[in-house]
Amino acid sequence: MNVKPGRGPPGPLMECRGRGGRGRGDPALRGPRSNDNDEYFEQDEDERESAGRRKSLIALAVLAVLVVAGLVLFDRLRSVSALQDCLMTRATNCAEISPPTP
After folding, report:
1. Could you tell me if residue 38 is inside a domain?
2. Is residue 67 part of a domain?
3. DSSP structure class, residue 27
4. 52-75 burial string, b = 16+ CB within 10 Å, else e?
5. Residue-number span of the structural domain to which 49 is assigned
6. Confidence of residue 7 (pLDDT cuts 50, 70, 90)
7. Cα–Cα distance between 86 and 93 in angstroms, integer?
């Protein structure tokens, strides 16, 4: 048997009963039954409608962010492509020239 120094042999296995020693089988310790509070957990028509509206607005916002990000990416790629085209012609003045500000 491999026993590490400073430790004895393993002890007997113990039954794990969870927190506070509460057993699963005791119905008095489990709390209220699920069908006692069902009326509080059910959504009425207004709550379902507002949740659907909220989900639609979130989806629209995500879509708008993706469209804006796509437009920015498109513009970046177009300007990089124009610069590459200029450099491939072996031109020396490919940098964008901006007019001086007064």
Report:
1. no
2. yes
3. G
4. eeeeeeeeeeeeeeeeeeeeeeee
5. 45-90
6. low
7. 9
Measuring CA to CA, how many Å separate 15 from each of 11, 18, 27, 28? 13, 9, 20, 21
What is the DSSP secondary structure assignment for residue 4, as one 8-state letter? -
Quick: pLDDT tens for 40-52.
677 777 788 888 8
Residue 69 belongs to some domain of the structure: yes
Q: Which residue's structure tokens are 């990089």?
A: 80
Distance between CA atoms of residues 30 and 28, nearest Å: 6
Domain count, the chain: 1
Residue the block writes with tokens 């003045």: 93
- Torsion sign over Cα 61, 63, 65, 68: negative
Residue 100 lies in a domain: no
